[in-house]
C-alpha cells in the first residue's frame, strides 16, 4: 500500500504542482524534506493564515528557506478560501 501511495504521489508531482493552500497531508508529505509533523504544521498554519506566496511557507515552524527552494518548482499558492 505504501508503494502505491508513493507512486501516485510521484505522478502527481510530475504532472502538477502542490497547492499549499489546498493540499492534504499525503500530498505535502510527498515533498522533499516534509514529513508527517511538518505537513501537520503546514496545515495548522494554513488554517490560521492563508499562504499568499510560496515564500510564506518558510514562516511555518520547522521549515526553512532551503526546504522552500528545494520544492519551489513543485509548489503553488492558489487563491485563499478565507
Structure description:
The chain has 82 residues and is mainly α. The protein has a single domain (2-76), classed as DNA polymerase, domain 1 (Orthogonal Bundle). The chain is 48% helix and 5% strand. The chain has helices spanning 2-15, 25-29, 36-48, 65-71, and strands at residues 18-19, 75-76. Strands 1-2 form a two-stranded parallel sheet. The radius of gyration is 12 Å and the shape is globular. The N and C termini lie far apart (35 Å).
Key terms:
single chain; 82 residues; mainly alpha; DNA polymerase, domain 1; two-stranded parallel ribbon; 4 helices; 48% helix; globular
Number of strands: 2
Q: Within the largest sheet, what's the order of strands?
A: 1-2
**Range of helix content:** 40-55%
CATH superfamily: Photosystem II 12 kDa extrinsic protein
Overall body shape: globular
The largest pleated sheet is described as:
2 strands, parallel
N-to-C span: 35 Å
SSE ordering: HEHHHE
The whole-angstrom Rg is 12 Å
Structural class: mainly alpha
CATH class: Mainly Alpha
CATH hierarchy: architecture: Orthogonal Bundle
CATH level-3 fold name: DNA polymerase, domain 1
Strand content: under 5%
Number of domains: 1
Mean pLDDT: 87
Amino acid at each position: 500500500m505504501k508503494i502505491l501511495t508513493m507512486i501516485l504521489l510521484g505522478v502527481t508531482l510530475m504532472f502538477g504542482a502542490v497547492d499549499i493552500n489546498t493540499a492534504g497531508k499525503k500530498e505535502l508529505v510527498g515533498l522533499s524534506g516534509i514529513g508527517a509533523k511538518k505537513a501537520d504544521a503546514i496545515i495548522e498554519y494554513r488554517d490560521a493564515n492563508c499562504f499568499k506566496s510560496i515564500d510564506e511557507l518558510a514562516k511555518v515552524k520547522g521549515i526553512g528557506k532551503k526546504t522552500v527552494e528545494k520544492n519551489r518548482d513543485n509548489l503553488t499558492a492558489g487563491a485563499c478560501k478565507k
